[in-house]
Amino acid sequence: MLFAGQLSDEQAQFREEVRAFLAEHLDAGMVAADDAQRSMVADPERSKAWIALLRPRGWHAGHIAKEFGGAGLSPIENYILHYEMGLHGAPALPPMGLYYVAPTAIEFGTQAQRDEIVPRVLDGSDYWCQGFSEPGSGSDLASVAMFAERRGDAYFLNGSKIWTTDAQHANKIFCLVRTRRENTRDALSFMLVDMAAAGVTVRPIRLFSGDHDFNQVFFDDVEIPVEALLGEEGNGWAVAKFLLDIERGAFVFGGRLRRRFVRLCERAQNCATPLAGLWDKLAQLDIELLAYEVTELRLGHAALDRSNADAEASVVKIEWTELAQRIDELHIAISGPETLYADAAARGASTRDEGIAMPDWLAGYFNNRAASIYGGSNEVQRNLVYRALKQQRRR
Amino acid sequence: MDFHAAPEQQALIDSAVRLLQDHYSQTTSNARTEFDAERWQQFAELGWLGTALAEGNGGLGLPESMLNILVEALAPAAMPEPFVSQVSLAGYLLNAASPSARRDECMAKWLAGDELVALAHHEAREQACFGQPVHTRATARGDELVVQGHKAVVLDGGRADRLLVSARLNDSAAMLLLLVPQDAPGLEVTRHATFDGRELADVDLNGVVLSRDARLEFAEPVATRIDAALRSFALHLAADSLGTAKALFKLSHEHLAEREQFGVKLVEFQALQHRLVDMQLAITRLESLLALARTRSDADGVSSAREFIAAAKIQAGVVGRHLAHESVQLHGAIGMTEELLVGRYFKRLTANELLGGTGVEHLRVFRAQRALS
Ligand SMILES: Cc1cc2nc3c(=O)[nH]c(=O)nc-3n(C[C@H](O)[C@H](O)[C@H](O)COP(=O)(O)OP(=O)(O)OC[C@H]3O[C@@H](n4cnc5c(N)ncnc54)[C@H](O)[C@@H]3O)c2cc1C
ipTM for the complex? Predict the structure, then answer.
């Protein structure tokens, strides 16, 4: 984080501890691979190796309370940890288990579910993916049609989920499904499904960059036990909302964006024919990045008043995604025709980068157009921010 | 790490809001543009003029950030009283000067709201706000100083009772800051009214004779102090722009919520909602940059915080333009008239961008500080 003046002594000390840890454990190869990765999403193999190093301190689960096996860091400490990891190029952590499933299970699960689910997320036994979107249900998530029919002590799932990131790597999937035929929110339920169950098939979907990030997952009369329900039957929307709020607000992007910006500046310094007005453009980006870093803290991790947290998470989501996309765009403009050469940069060492040969900054630019679509499109986020503005006006 | 208003900050903001409600209820673009001495007295009584002045100098001894918050809270008034320039230029420099009979007397009158003081430093109507060369010369003649030169863009120069004139001593590079009374023989002040109701002046000093004690003493070089005053001015202008932008947002939102076309309130149209959201996002960015500039100014002083002040000032220009343009557009034709405050705010934001260093100049500062080249 940028302004030391605002850190308490303990926080400054914690930051030193994090930096010392990164200096000792984060090797250059890991960093280079992460920098070259084309997708924003964590790479399963590299993140696993990194998590193994974080685990002794519980820092892979800094946000999770000690009683559940995490480090129980304060929001600010967790912010510092993730800002520094991002800034120094540590591999991204896969969010689905650590950030979505574990906190949601702690919030809504029975004791038996917590005991079963959380340790397996933390020790890496389970790798989760998210089954929300369907071919007919995107922004209007509450319209999902996948049906779970109760027959005796089991549910039988029929339907399909789409755009499922990491389904090719995951052994578990959480799904928002319909448990009654009515088109109402209280007909929705939240279910935890073993992907090894009979009747689950995964079809890869390639991005136009050729990369394989997401999939379609089909459910053909998949039998799952009633204990697979998280929260009560009919309460699925509340569970999904809780999880979506995490998706929009819990992450720290400041450090990663700052790193991308610094790398962009390095590229600009090495560029033979600088773009007109290049450094002014970079300076304007730098200023907006500074603004973002403060916004992320002010509205998110350091906020005391959470009464408007929903809309503030939307603000943060719009801001980081659109800033990231501008950094990517400028990268292409700076690099110029060199971008046409596939050998201009080594292909990312990620197992997910199986796509068409092209420089990593170009593939990153293409892939990151998704940032303003996933996690609730930016248009939908703007709807949510407006809803809050409307309420403020009434007050 | 706390971004929330402390109780004393809140109290300051509340007192500002009360005053605005009582005395600044004008709602049109070109209403009252005249300086009101009574109002100015009231600012003095409330202690506002001395917000960031040392307690030993009769001020409240609050940090620069508190003054900045007050400026932001007062912005919706778009007042003709030159609060921002007076506190950040005159107030800053008088506070920084070493005690002397002349300085103490001047500061007491200024703090009491009895006199205005204007900084006469710039000499050309050009881009540069920082580091402009000073050609005005003070020549020692026995016990007196004789001052010769020309000053431009002197804010409040006509209305001020005294000027703070920067000058070179004899042929040396050493810079002085001299207190010159408005009625000094040889002083010629040409007033200009700006489009947004401010007042500035061109000043000629034709052999103005001053006694030696007209010279303010500083612990640091005068040029350093003037530079710091200008940074503080930029910081407070950015806060004024933030408060003004917020006021414009409110007006635009109100208008869309009231105005009906096609049988519905305009605000029902999603395209317009999203434009309001984008205005709000811009405001959020500026708020964040000001939070940063405030923190750093309090911690390290305005000079060391110059890159963050530059960032805030640049963004104030960007956000100010965005809010001004969108507010006019969302109001439709009525937004172009002098019937509303929209135009008054637009003019104020435009002038704020041109004062205290333009975006172009602060971008140079920012790039140099952050090695962006
Ligand atoms: C890379 C990537 C990874 C993803 N990973 C997952 C995953 O792991 N699991 C999962 O469940 N889903 C995932 N998604 C899906 C994602 O959540 C959806 O794409 C998103 O919610 C938008 O839905 P949609 O694509 O159907 O677009 P649509 O809802 O069809 O929208 C199309 C366009 O219309 C706009 N629009 C829609 N409604 C409105 C409105 N009310 N007002 C204004 N504009 C509107 C949208 O903003 C968009 O621009 C992923 C998506 C991407 C791109």
Answer: 0.88
